[in-house]
Amino acid sequence: MTRLTQAAYCGETDMLHGLLNNGADIDALDDAALTPLMYAAMQGQKFTLDALLARGALVNRRSRRDHTALLLAAFSRHPVIVRHLLKQGSDVNASDIHGTAPLMAAAYAGHAGIVRQLLAAGAAVNTCSFSGRTALILAAWHGNAEVVALLLEAGAEPETQTEKGETALSVAVRRGDPAIIELIAGALAMRQGINTDAR
What is d(CA 59, CA 7) in angstroms, rounded to the nearest whole number? Predict the structure, then answer.
């Protein structure tokens, strides 16, 4: 960690201003390949994040693994930070080197409030990682019925398969999660009924 990223991580806003006044690079990656804004987002340091943005930090700057502050805030379960970054123009669909987008990170983390925010901001509900995992599959894997329901209501495709042939339903069956099985089976039945009516 640099002194600047440490200040962002710990929420030391006065120290951060002092370092920036002395010429510290606000968007520089440290040895962990993260920027001060990313640390503030991960740690939920809103005042420090506000200070960085006010001084020109790039909201869509990427780490060497293509993480953005928004993706890290979503994964770290910080809804206030997510809301603020979205208002500042964060790319809601920016994915990392594995193809993981913020909605997928929020589904993995099981935070329904953040999932709602991202969907309202235009997150693509059926985006897949490079291994074929969608937000719905990740939510099923982690057993969060509320998130599964939100994603299905937003149009998540329940039949999408990973590169290993897994679907959200097969994941829920393997986990033995009756609530999620019921939600996905109901969505599949409704979809099949609509397809039948369209013939």
Answer: 18
